[in-house]
Amino acid sequence: MASLLHAVRSLVAPLTRTRVFRAVGPVVLPPAERALAWCSGGRLQISALLVPSLVLHSTGARSGRRRDTYLMYTPDGRGRGIVAGSSFAQGRHPAWTYNLMAHPDASISVHGRRIPVRATLIEDGERDAVWARIERQWPGYRQYERTSGRVVRLFRLERPERA
Predict the structure, then answer these.
(1) How far apart are CA 151 and CA 33, in angstroms?
(2) Alpha helices, DSSP H, located in the chain
């Protein structure tokens, strides 16, 4: 099954890097994700058909309001995950990255289960290794960074240490 999924990802991934997808994806996918989440009680996501996906529950950097963002993530061992602020290769960073920088304590929902997390911006020395891990899951994903003309923010999400 894993090899079939990898083959499907390898076929679909190049399509997600086309100009058409980068133009249509940001308009169509977020409302479609919200609709499916509403219908499934938060247990299903469109992106989860191909890759591990989550809902990031963060606090707005300026507004202080709760923000929910549907994201692909890459497992990083010991219950940690990595998210990339690729934003469909747009020229600016997505709002959720500013939210995590201002308020790193957040939570995620995976398969409808809510988990508290703390976000840490991945440093330059780790970026190549992290991108390699992400691209094992989604081939060619770093091309979004190259196309956007900016350094994509990468965050590690992990459960906060208990005091």
Answers:
(1) 26
(2) 2-16, 19-40, 95-102, 124-137, 143-148
Q: What's the CATH number for 2-158?
A: 2.30.110.10
Assess contact for 128 and 135: CB atoms under 8 A: no
Q: Between helices 19-40 and 2-16, what is the axis angle to 10°? A: 130
Helix (H, G, I), strand (E, B), or coil: what is residue 3?
helix
Using a cut of 0.90, tell me whether the model's pTM lies above it. Answer: no
Among the listed residues 26, 153, 162, the one whose alpha carbon sits nearest the alpha carbon of residue 99:
153
Please give the DSSP secondary-structure letter assigned to residue 89.
G
| Contact (CB, 8 A) for 153 and 85 | yes
- What integer pLDDT is reported at residue 88 of this predicted model? 81
Domain residue ranges of the chain, discontinuous segments joined by +: 2-158
Contacts 24+ apart (CB under 8 A), 29-35: 29/70, 30/70, 33/70, 34/70
Q: What is the mean pLDDT of each run of 10 residues along the chain (163 residues)?
A: 69 75 78 81 72 92 94 88 91 96 96 92 96 90 90 96 64
